[in-house]
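Hey team,

Filing this mostly as a record. A colleague (T.K.) asked me to run one chain through the structure pipeline before their review meeting, and I want the input and output archived in the tracker in case anyone asks later how it was produced. No errors, nothing strange. Just documentation.

Input sequence:
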Amino acid sequence: MWKLTWTTYRSKNFPFPLPIVRLRQTKVGSLVLVENGRMKCKTEEESDFYELLIQENLYPTLNYHVGSIPVHFALVPFKLALIERHSHMNEKRLMKRLKKRKWDVLFFSRERLATEHGRRLLVNDIYHLLSQKPSFSLFETKKGLSH
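Output structure:
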């Protein structure tokens, strides 16, 4: 979507301000169709974590791409990427590339998804990260955390 704005420019050479027309592209809100992604999960741990996110009213998109970066779980309305940690991964580079696109990143390990306690801690980390965003209100999405 494009936005047309009128502004004025003052110059030392002219005694009056000059009108300028600016054409800028505005950001459009991202809408994602929520579908049952349990069948897309590769492991049982991922499907359990997916179900936990659904129970917590966080609807993830599986195998999402932010530019050329593959994301395991993406919370698109909140611009939060959950990426599995690997030994050959350059985390600082990924964070920098996603920050440039205004996305937050949370890395997780397969061992953390293996236990129910680890999955709950990861959901609490998600809520903690989302509560730091200025446009997020915990009471609009969930009426409290379940432990």
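Quick notes for T.K.: The radius of gyration is 21 Å. The chain has one domain: 38-141.
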